[in-house]
Design brief:
alpha+beta; UDP-n-acetylglucosamine1-carboxyvinyl-transferase, Chain; 2 domains; 4-stranded mixed beta sheet; 23 strands; binds uridine-diphosphate-N-acetylglucosamine
Amino acid sequence: MDKLLVKGNKRINGRMRNQTSKNAVLAMLAASILTDKEVIIRQCPKITDVDNMAKILVELGCKVKWEGDSLVIDCSSAHRHEIPHSLAKELRSSIFMLGPILGRFHKAKVAYPGGCDIGIRPIDLHIKGFKALNIDIDESGDTICCDGKDIKGNIIHLDFPSVGATENIMMAAVFAEGTTVIKNAAKEPEIADLQNFINAMGGKISGAGSSTIEIEGVKKLGSVDYTPISDRIVAGTYLIAAAITGGSIEVENCHPEHIYSLITKLRETTCKVEYFNDKIYLTAPKTLQSIHKIETMPFPGFPTDLQAQILALMTVTNGTSLIVENIFETRYKHVAELLKMGAKITVKDRMAIVRGVPKLYGANVYAYDLRGGAALVMAGLAADGLTQINGIHHIDRGYEDLAGTLQSLGADIKRIT
Ligand code: UD1
């Protein structure tokens, strides 16, 4: 198993180009099954979540290949509507395939995904949405069987603006008879990008990015050549890396408006943050101020996917900060690891109280999930001595060469096998 070795106390300094959005791309890979024409995803990030989603497409009979940094997908020969049990259990994102498989084949079968390291992650909202579209669902045992021979548009009100449920329902409704309206839809930028992607293939979706999305059923979709939006979480991670090391950074290929919530909080720490077009610039002070309170919320609130990284930053600020994690119930696995590095954090239910210390020290730590792993790298960058991060296959799920990029920015970090 590969590990990362970080020798701390080196300032991050320089310019980097941000990758495209993992969550946008995963949804687009799922949506590719809706067409039998060619799909090209430009600047597709080379991360294992993409490889794994591609594996599912291949399993369904599609052809997937890399051409430089583009992923080319041909689903004309797709013939299976069933995701094998082993793959579905291994890959949570298989649940995103239900909607598009239903759209294409009017039936779908997938194993129940179960929980993961950040929470229980039920799929009741996906299922309720499908039922409202006149899809018959049999959930007996460990498998979800969907029969959608008569999919009809409807008005669906989500109890919570779930990203996955919004996307899944959008994709299932692309070929439904009539119009589907999703109310209290998730407003994340990746959903608007999915809408633009499907519309570029000939779909008729409007409203994504707001809380009401309308999907007018169409008969067929065509080909698409698309460049997804940039990854707001990866951009945020590098900004935090610069902040925690007292450094400065220019992140290119960003949508600053997608991370205003983070920019505001970084300014509270007295970092100087500016943006212009697709670039964000950050210069950190010598001493960071604590942040009064951060609560994770659906977009445009503070993203849960940046909670671990900002928590790592809080550990070295001058004062006490409070984090409330409202989205996932057990998303504090990184805290026990940060404690090994000398951080002072108390967790109670969904709340973490972080008392800043002057310095962290290196330790042997374990990444239990993707963003928690990134947070440990951030902490290692700021610590005295050597930090060894194990379990970095989690980090590879979402960051394209995190170690290489940080190294190019002046960090002392290497990957060892
Ligand atoms: C997506 C993102 C993930 C991000 C999350 C929240 C992808 C591939 N993943 O995950 O990176 O952290 O949004 O921004 O895009 N819930 C239910 N019932 C459901 C569905 C969700 O109770 O049927 C709950 C979940 O348990 C969780 C909350 O709703 O507590 C948010 O989940 P959701 O927005 O669905 O997250 P994901 O789509 O799984």
